[in-house]
Amino acid sequence: MTLPNEDVKAMLAGQFVLAARNIQRDPHVGMSHGYRCDQSAVGTTNGAGGRNVQLLVLAADDTVVHALPGFWHAADLLPELRLGLELFRLYVDDDRPPAARDAMFAALHRSHVRRHGEAAAARGAWQSFDAWHERQRADFAARDTSVPAPGGMPALKDIPTLVHDRMLARPFRRLADFDLEAFVDYGRPFYDNNPGADRRREFPLAERANKKRASAAAKAAAVAVGRARAAR
What we know:
Blueprint: H1 6-15, E1 54-58, E2 63-69, H2 74-91, H3 98-122, H4 128-138, E3 146-147, E4 155-156, H5 159-168, E5 173-174, H6 180-183, H7 204-231
Antiparallel strand pairs: 1-2, 2-5, 3-4
Helix pairs in contact: 1-2, 2-3, 3-5
């Protein structure tokens, strides 16, 4: 998560209490080949691999004040972490009524996108395989990943904008109520930007989680088809 950057490491060490958790068994986890400890991740785009890694900024009561899926460039991760600190201060401000707090939550996200959106958007373009997969999905179901564009063809939002839009729909939710599967649902479930001979390490727990998710989705689709036929 861009941690080799010294400025990022200094902010995390100085402003946050850090913890990590293995998500291989979680239902939202994606598929990927992993990196060895002696490897360096190749350059990628903001939000790429969102199902494989997530950085959550939590209050002490497990309320999610900010969430960042995937990998991020240090130039964009630092402002996002600063936003997380602003949102945390807002959350613990007991003098602000809930409605005013939620309004400020939205204002902070929108202001952040305006101030940092242009540079972050350029580094938040979709991976080609993710973009293709997302456009295919949009042909069959309504998606929040795109906006109308000239000529009638929908245009994909850059991923940082999508992330902030999804956070706007989840103001100060407890982690237990924060639907990570829906939050990271964009692009392909499989992500690997590490080609060639280095593609070695497998994640069997993630593979089983993905098979379980695919089976549940197939059953749900079959039930929906059955209901549609019965309704006729």
